[in-house]
Amino acid sequence: MNKEILSDSYSVFFKKNGFDNLSNHLRNKNYSKIFIHVDNNTKQYCLDLFLKKIHISNYDLIESCDGEENKNIESCLKLWQTISDKGGDRNSLIINLGGGVVSDMGGFIASTYKRGINYINVPTTLLSMVDASVGGKTGIDFGTLKNQIGTFYDPKMVVIDPEFLNTLEKNEISSGYAEIFKHSLIYDSTAYNKLINNDKPLYNLKTIYSSILTKNKIVLIDKKERKERKSLNYGHTLGHAIESYFLNSDNKLLHGEAVSIGIVLASFLSNKLFNFSIEHVNSIKNHINYVYKKIEINDDQINSIIDLLIHDKKNSHGKINFILLKDIAKPVYDVQVKTEFIKESFKYYLS
Q1: What is the distance between the alpha carbons of residues 256 and 12, in angstroms, rounded to a whole number?
Q2: What's the mean pLDDT when you consider all of the chain?
């Protein structure tokens, strides 16, 4: 597939077409410094493959530690220092080769260093391909609170190559699938029916392309998340709180694993408040339980998770705002939900 998805200021390229465009971009731009940003996993499993595809020899490697717990200001300080020590200036480029943490944090570093330098995303996980690398959101966590510090800052391009998925464990693939499934719920009933009726998660190149196209269409309508882009947070209000709660526990969850629970909870709440079909709710729950291991959450943990909701980015004037559904592909924005209903949604998930 050599298709191209056009955003307002950059393109998403696929496979060989992507690496050809990236190579041409590097030749034509004459960057003073090229930094390839990796974590310890992508350095080991993806860097050699990437270098073979673009044949670049003059670059500096900058490395961060993998894992959401390292997406913080301390990691940024180290990377800014390394870039500065290696002579990075306003005509430098960062290539983010990695998953969501690498692209989120690398984009944030690029947006703030020298008041903004160019960056390119080459996602190596399913999650970063269909979500984190596209849309121009950058950010880091603040303590255990997800994405509290960040910017809107577009890459120069995004290059998608599913060959990198061969380096991943099964749970990392499943984590990315949560975002593909979410995109179908909020935007595309045809895609939803295809996914929900399939006997295994679909994440082939055609599905990845379709999912990225969906996100790009939504972002082009509402780049700064005033209304329509909020729909991309479906399942994320509680999903982020769940992810934050378990971040420093022995039962740490991947982003998509936490969001998958949030999707079930949001679907139950959608039925409670907007009469979203209970048949859909049950089908969504069954599909999620087929793809993901059910997580046991006790009452004390539920209360702690609810306490974390106050820090969600979508909140305004002290009110917790949810994205819910009236029907498949018909989101409702900025919905306040009673605590008792949230607790009921957990009981539904756990039942």
Answers
A1: 22
A2: 94
